[in-house]
Write a structure and sequence with these properties.
The complex is a heterodimer of chains A (321) and B (295). In chain A, a hairpin with a 2-residue loop joins strand 6 and strand 7. Chain A has 3 domains: 105 residues, Roll (Ubiquitin-like (UB roll)), CATH 3.10.20; 126 residues, Fumarate Reductase Iron-sulfur Protein, Chain B, domain 2, CATH 1.10.1060.10; 74 residues, no CATH class. In chain A, helix 7 packs antiparallel against helix 8 and helix 11 runs antiparallel to helix 12. Chain A is globular and about 70 Å long. In chain A, strands 2-1-5-3-4 form a 5-stranded mixed β-sheet. The longest helix of chain A is centred in the last third of the chain and has 16 residues. Chain A is 40% helix and 12% strand. Chain B is of the alpha/beta class and 295 residues long. Chain B has a 4-stranded parallel β-sheet. Chain B has a 4-stranded parallel β-sheet with strand order 6-5-7-8, sandwiched between helices. Chain B is globular, with a radius of gyration of 19 Å. Chain B starts with a strand and ends in a 5-residue tail after the last helix. The chains are: A alpha+beta (321), B alpha/beta (295). At the A-B interface, helix 9, helix 10, helix 11, helix 12 and helix 13 of A face helix 2, helix 3 and helix 8 of B.
């Protein structure tokens, strides 16, 4: 029999029970003897089965397929069945909390209703113009390969948990639903690309992502939701859907780099908001005055880089690719 | 130690105090900054140009790095965003086919990207090259009375693969480490690796302000005297928009935000004026008086 090392670790769990102390969250420590091959889920199951049967958590496949067991470990969302205890322990301690940005039901179990509502809001089904075929929709393999990554999503909610925008704006569709939206926008069998993108450029859609890359970092399946959101931004701008401040900002930024090689912050704001958008510009005035008083208002005219013609040649070659 | 100096647009624009303080501290740290090597370099695109065209963005970054490579110099940045955008481009350029495609464009200017000299942020260079022992030997003013909240900026912490945390695990805690090396105490607060909200400022100011308000107020409530950041874009947002965020939260925050080289400069004994530490929207007077210094 293979010998494994045993040791005692301290697991701190954020707990919450609607029937206890007015649903107020509290932290409970458990000292648990673990084997060196334990995952975080192994230790949580050991606690529930051998130490405290009142601990509530969700899990099923234990093999990172079902997506049931996303939780925050030391502040970061992880699929706990895929996370070895040794990789997250600090001084023989770990902190386990429920996923963020979702209401807690009990302890580590959360209510996924907002997650599913947003998933449904992006119409997660094919919308072909032609009549539905008798059997399945067929697409050439090479047209579908680029979608494999996004179809790996197991809807565990890790990206939603750690999304920094959802913390401050709960009507943001969020990384999981937007990755799902991309899966249909980019599907060659779908004919509703324009309709989908027109909806996605509205408030709460693709332009609300702050590119913080939390979703890229925590996704246990490398779905890379942020890159999918960026791809939809590029796609919408290619289709001249430029009304949002996000698109105006990206277009203004690109044209400034093209003309001088460096960013001119003053012109960037004016071009994004619009030179004659008096109301928005008046709102910015106090900030400009305070920057001026601090001696740090960016110059109106900025310098250009040396050899900027070389840069322009690169733009000419690649800007429409 | 000689580097091709890539200050980034913001250090030459809306945050000139970052540029000035960097030049001052580099001299004492024995870091030679060759800015001339990068006079043809462009903006990295800051992740914004990449929203429109990733190939174009990666080509511009490969070009910038190739300019430094031509001088046999590695690039030093002082902007988390520039660093992150360049690291992400470097990661994609590891693909030989992609690198060849981009080099085909660069060839027209007599440049070639090899990727042999990875770009590094000043903060990383201090921690990785200068190291604790040498750095501490240079400290002339221990900032023992200060409690400082570290704020990294997204691009210096994610994606950890592109930033090569697996090869350089010290990068995960470098800002806390530096804070301790200058003698200050680290204020541990939940937002240190979160987003400041800058990228959505023009799209959704309310959400961006909530981020500013949440981070600065929680750091303040946990006892921070100031926040320190290696990212000038985070600085702009957390400093310039803090009063507006405080107004939205109907509370006072008043937390000075300082750049990494300003913190280093204070510890190295430089005069606050030389570091232009008085050039912030949120006053640093109280912070400096804690150190018995005048702004």
């Amino acid at each position: 029999m293979v010998q494994t090392a045993k040791k005692t670790v301290q697991i701190t769990i954020k707990r919450q029970d609607p029937e206890v102390d007015g649903n107020k969250p509290y932290f409970q420590d458990y000292n648990v003897e673990v084997e060196d091959w334990f995952t975080v889920l192994d230790v949580l199951i050991k606690i529930r089965e051998q130490i405290d049967g009142t601990l509530s958590l969700r899990c099923a496949c234990r093999a990172s397929i079902c997506g049931s067991c996303a939780m925050r470990v030391n502040g970061q969302a992880k699929l706990v069945c895929k996370t070895k205890l040794t990789t997250v322990m600090k001084d023989n301690k770990i902190l386990v909390e429920p996923v963020g940005n979702m209401p807690v039901i009990t302890d580590l179990t959360t209510d996924f209703k907002p997650f599913w509502d947003k998933m449904l809001a992006v119409d997660p089904y094919l919308k072909p113009e032609e009549e539905a075929p008798e059997a399945e929709y067929i697409a050439p393999n090479e047209d579908m390969v680029h979608l494999v990554g996004v179809m790996n999503c197991i809807m565990c909610g890790a990206c939603v948990s750690d999304c920094t925008v959802l913390e401050v704006k709960d009507d943001f569709l969020g990384p999981a639903a937007l990755a799902k939206a991309y899966r249909f926008v980019a599907d060659p069998r779908d004919d509703a690309e324009n309709e989908r993108l027109s909806n996605l450029i509205e408030d709460g859609g693709i332009w609300d992502c702050t590119r913080c890359m939390q979703c890229v970092e925590v996704c246990p399946k490398d779905v890379d939701p942020m890159s999918r959101i960026m791809a939809m931004r590029a796609n919408s701008m290619d289709k001249k859907m430029n009304k949002s401040y996000g698109a105006r900002h990206a277009n203004a930024f690109t044209s400034l780099i093209k003309s001088s090689g460096v960013l001119n912050e003053t012109l960037l704001i004016l071009k994004t908001k619009g030179f004659f958008n008096i109301i928005e510009l008046i709102k910015l005035l106090p900030l400009a005055i305070s920057a001026q008083l601090a001696g740090k208002r960016p110059p109106f005219l900025s310098h250009s880089i040396k050899n900027k013609d070389n840069l322009k040649k690169i733009f000419k070659k690649l800007e429409n690719k | 130690m000689k580097f091709a100096f890539f200050p980034g647009c913001v250090a030459k624009g809306a945050a000139p105090e970052l540029y000035t303080s960097t030049v001052k501290v580099a001299e004492i740290l024995g870091i030679e900054l060759d800015e001339k090597a990068m006079e043809s370099a462009s903006c990295t695109g800051a992740g914004v140009l990449q929203e429109k065209n990733q190939l174009l963005g990666d080509t511009l970054n490969a070009r910038n790095i190739a300019l430094a490579e031509k001088q046999n110099l590695p690039i030093l940045t002082i902007c988390s965003t520039c660093q992150g955008v360049m690291s992400q481009a470097e990661q994609r350029l590891e693909n030989e086919e992609y690198r060849a495609q981009i080099n085909e464009t660069l060839k027209e200017e007599g440049l070639e990207y090899t990727g042999k000299t990875p770009t590094r942020h000043l903060l990383w260079i201090i921690v990785e090259e200068i190291g604790e022992k040498k750095f501490k030997s240079l400290v002339k003013r221990k900032l023992e009375t200060l409690n400082l909240a570290p704020f990294y900026g997204c691009y210096l912490v994610r994606p950890s693969k592109a930033l090569k945390f697996y090869e350089n695990p010290e990068r995960e805690t470098c800002l806390e480490d530096l804070t301790e090396w200058v003698g200050a105490k680290v204020t541990d607060f939940p937002g240190s690796k979160a987003c400041c909200g800058f990228p959505i400022l023009t799209v959704n100011e309310k959400a961006a302000l909530k981020m500013v308000g949440n981070h600065t107020s929680s750091a303040k409530d946990l006892g921070a005297d100031a926040m320190v950041t290696p990212c000038p874009l985070c600085h702009l947002n957390l400093d310039q928009y803090q009063n507006r965020a405080a107004g939205m939260m109907k509370r006072e925050i008043d937390l000075p935000i300082i750049h990494v080289p300003q913190l280093v400069g204070l510890a190295l004994g430089l005069d606050p004026k030389e570091l232009r530490i008085n050039k912030h929207i949120i006053s640093t007077k109280k912070l400096l008086s804690e150190l018995s210094l005048r702004p």
